[in-house]
Amino acid sequence: MIDIKSLSAAYTPRRLTDSDIEDVFRLCSGNPQYYIHIPPPVCRESISADMRALPPGMTADDKYYIGYFDGGRLAAVLDLISGYPEKGVAYIGFFMVDAAMQSCGVGSVIINELCRYLSDRGFASVRLAWADGNNQAERFWLKNGFSKTGSVKKDECILITAQKILNPIFN
To answer: What are the pLDDT tens digits along the chain (171 aa)?
Structure first.
């Protein structure tokens, strides 16, 4: 079980609900670059579906759809699956920072705090993927210590898979 309130000292994280869809929509709409690489464009219905989407074999207890707040402002959204694709691994299904707060270190602070929290709780690694050709995402994840592990085809795009080892003894 992940203690959401303990994920960040810099921001106020909390689980997002349907009442937050408008704020998430506003944040995502401000990042059209992402949707060039992973269509279709964001809509309120897709956010609602993403809040509930689960990989095979996972339950709602394994999913954390989290908002990071700076004061009352939604600064970032993180979709995290605990124990996927295997025990000891956390999977970031989605991460986006408000466009007005990008290039200021906000995303790196959040991801580094998350990785430290997960490492302290014995997670072996964090995995994720970004769309091939999304150079902004690639630079961000590589800068934050993730390494490419391969690629997979999903729908109409190629996803670059990556991971960050947290506790090498477990891998």
So the answer is: 899 999 999 999 999 999 999 999 999 999 998 999 988 889 999 999 999 999 999 999 999 999 999 999 999 999 999 999 999 999 999 999 999 999 899 999 999 999 999 999 999 999 999 999 999 999 999 999 999 999 999 888 899 999 999 987 654
For residue 90, give the CATH number of its domain.
3.40.630.30
Ramachandran angles phi, psi of 69, nearest 5°: -110, 140
Centre a 10 Å sphere on the Cβ of residue 141 and count the other Cβ atoms it contains: 24
CA atoms within 13 A on the CB side of 83: 12
Range(s) of the domain holding residue 88: 4-170
Nearest to 93 by CA among 104, 84, 102, 106: 84
Cα(82)–Cα(85) distance, integer angstroms: 9
Which long-range contacts does 92-95 make (Cβ < 8 Å, 24+ apart)? 92/126, 92/127, 92/128, 93/50, 93/53, 93/55, 93/128, 94/50, 95/128
Domain total in the chain: 1
Residue 108: phi, psi to the nearest 5?
-65, -40
How many Cα atoms sit within 13 Å of 30 on the Cβ side? 17
